[in-house]
Amino acid sequence: MAISILNNIIRLPPPSSSSSLLFLSILPSIPSSNPKKPIRLRIRRSSASLSDMDVISSPGLYPLHRCKTLHLVRHAQGVHNVEGDKDFSNYLSEQLFDAHLTPLGWQQVDNLRKHVHETGLSKKIELVIVSPLLRTLQTAVGVFGGEGYKDGINVPPLMVENAGESNRPAISSLDCPPFVAVELCREHLGVHPCDRRKSISEYRPLFPAIDFSLIDSDEDNLWEANYREKDEEIATRGMKFLNWLWRREEREIAVVTHSGFLYHTLSVFGNDCHPSVKSEICTHFANCELRSMVIVDRCMLGSDPATTNYPGKIPSGLDLPSDVALSNEREGK
């Protein structure tokens, strides 16, 4: 199954039975030296037909109810990142099993949290999807969770105090979107102990308000000590994840995941874009980096109705376009 990313300047393939089910698009911005001054568009007459135009400069246009906004986040710095930068062979160390965030990583979490609140993003997100590894769970609740948890509140916290050697206070689940752990968006599977997770029964007491019900096995039966998942296998898993994500009812979703998963999944996209757009899509994410994309359903994959469209002709009556009305008048109808 082919899936493509598009931006506001791309080449659009013609619809066909083999066309992709989904597009992803970077949320565009229009630069202006004076943001208060309206942009003037100069239209010139041309003898060229639309079919003669270079469609790479044409914007894509899609019904709003066939789009979802995804806010993709790589986890903050983990202890494995520090040790791996010193010596790549350190990734084979059992001491890095299910790596937790460093103190610097928690500072990165605090900075991203401040950003999502200042931009109003925290009020828009309807769902947080998170990979079930300690570093992603810590990042997700730290960025998108509530304020400090207080005893006596009759709701479970997203994270208990000092979970995963965090030296952090408990995090509240009040006034937050739901958090759901999903195996499909895990990091590169196999060989590296830092990418092997704890049992779900160990996570639940640490992150009481996170929903782990979609994970089938308590133990990690996906990670293999002697087999490292191939890049193309990660990309295939990423496509399954995006299609699963599309079928959910939420329209604005945060996904907290990993560098390898993001890179190999997103590298499938953008080959029909300008190189700088391709780079925006799939360049490796920095620790605790957030990028916003739009996923577009082109082939009726979803079935959500339009909520803002209005059918018109209420009350009903004659409403012929002017060219049709003129033609009817000339024919004496």
UniProtKB/TrEMBL annotation:
GO terms for cellular component: cytoplasm. Pfam families: His_Phos_1. InterPro entries: His_Pase_superF_clade-1 (IPR013078), His_PPase_superfam (IPR029033), PGM_Phosphatase (IPR050275). It comes from the Eukaryota. GO terms for molecular function: phosphatase activity. Gene3D superfamilies: Phosphoglycerate mutase-like. Coiled coil: none annotated. PANTHER family: BROAD-SPECIFICITY PHOSPHATASE YOR283W-RELATED (PTHR48100), HISTIDINE PHOSPHATASE FAMILY PROTEIN-RELATED (PTHR48100:SF1). May play a role in carbohydrates metabolism. Belongs to the phosphoglycerate mutase family. This is Phosphoglycerate mutase-like protein 1. It comes from Hibiscus trionum.
